[in-house]
Amino acid sequence: MCAVSPAVTIEPAISHWQKEPSMPSPPSLESALGAEPPASVLALPDGVQQQLAAHVETASRRQADLVSDAVDAAVRGVPLPVRGVVKRALLG
Amino acid sequence: MSRPHPGPALARLAHVLGVKVGDLHDLAHLPEGDLRALHTQVSHRLFTEGEHQFARIAGLASSLPAPMVGKIAERFLPASVAARAAELLDPARARDLVGRFSLAYLSDVALALDPLRSRAVVRAIAPERVGEIAHELLRRGHHLLLVDFLGAVTPEAFAAVLDVAPPADLAQVLPLLECDDATRASFAAADSHVRARLEARLAQLPPDSAAGLQAALGLPA
Question: Do residues A44 and B27 lie in contact, with contact meaning Cβ atoms separated by under 8 Å?
């Protein structure tokens, strides 16, 4: 047995875009990745690929928020003697 | 309904996406190699779109005194962001900084490291520190995510892991390890003392738990 438990809540692999036809089209998986996915991934149902693309976009937004928040917090929070150095290094 | 048991690549993909392994259950039947390729594509996208900032953070970490970097990073830098910056560090600098972080933070960073981009940095970490990280990740139950980390370490660090990790945990992790050419070459070049340590520790594990690994590394069963 491995330690990562598979016993988690499984959401249906249907994105909210499928449920709301009036919403703009979701990005394709290839667009989200910036590369052509492996053939076995491209063979997955459209809904699964769209869900995966949505996960990638969410991860991207989360990372951008994390970096932005961390830079802001560091510039404001480091001790005064190094604040200028940190600000120049992180913000240019 | 039974589902395929998740492997290291699916766990790694879920981790980089910030979702649970179960959220990717529709991918669980895909070949491990394709899941690794997919992880690489996701990781590459996330890295490239933030690379400018990661490089700035790495530059700052290279210019300030190491003790100060340790304090600033743990206070302000989420582990996933620190991991991206660490992948850009000079390995010698990374080795120095590793000693400045708490084990908890360092283990979080290790979990987030990309197995391909971080190889040189991981191999620069002192063997005893690698053993501590591995022990901590096993304690937390991150067996699947430890697989890629172990695949990058030096033979000396691998021996340190075998010294400290519980045999029952190793019996879960070691069969999942895949040795690439670089790993096989580094084990082949390990000195006789390290090889003897590895052979002795692997021989103490439950039967068959490390047979594939021993064969891949050219170690006697």
Answer: yes
